[in-house]
Amino acid sequence: MPIRLDRSYADDRPAILALMDEARGRDLSDAERAQQGFVQGRMDESSLTRLQAGTGVFVARDGSTLVGFAMTSAAHSAKNDLAVEMLRIAAQAESEVQPEKTFLYGPVAVDRRYQGQGLLTRLLIHVCTELRTQFKLGVLFVDRANHKSLTIHREYLMDERSGFEFKGRSYVVFTFSPAAILDHYG
Questions:
Q1: How many CB atoms lie within 10 A of CB 105?
Q2: Reduced to 3 states, what is the DSSP secondary structure of residue 128?
Q3: How many whole angstroms separate alpha carbon 149 and alpha carbon 173?
Q4: Residue in 30, 69, 38 with CA at minimum distance from that of residue 52
């Protein structure tokens, strides 16, 4: 059965949270997490509900099994300090950043059994297809210790911006145009 991409529903919340928890890599050493990639941040059902009601959480399904997700949120609704700092860096690099035309991309995760099959690229294309008319710019950050994620995002048609430090961690900011992603990959 082919993998389907769509918006998530309320019934998907337990599977999304379970995949996110698995993708944290808590059972791995720091070196293994850097090599295999990891997701960070806290997410609970109420936070996930807000994201689903906003710009959306997009999922990949193999039959009835959820095998990947990409969370998004409108930049103008960013409340946590980490997202605000990421947007500040993006605005320094992109002189025409308009919060109402910018969305935050991430976290994203793909079930380990499905990695290396282009699913993350398909999720990115799907997100850009869904959000392209509403937003001109996507922004994301990656922990510098997450070598796998840095390598992957450096391969996409994204602009790597300066980094920042936050609570003892170092991050890299990426920006991208949904229209350019679709022109290139779609």
A1: 27
A2: helix
A3: 12
A4: 69
pTM: 0.91
Residue 170, token pair as written in the block: 């170092």
Please name the amino acid found at residue 73.
Answer: S
User: 8-12 — which CB contacts under 8 Å span 24+ positions?
Assistant: 8/52, 8/56, 8/57, 8/58, 8/59, 8/66, 8/69, 9/52, 10/49, 10/52, 12/57, 12/59, 12/66
pLDDT digits (tens, 9 = 90+) for 34-54: 888 888 878 899 999 999 999
Q: What is the DSSP letter of 114?
A: G
From CA 56, how far away is CA 9, in angstroms rounded? 9
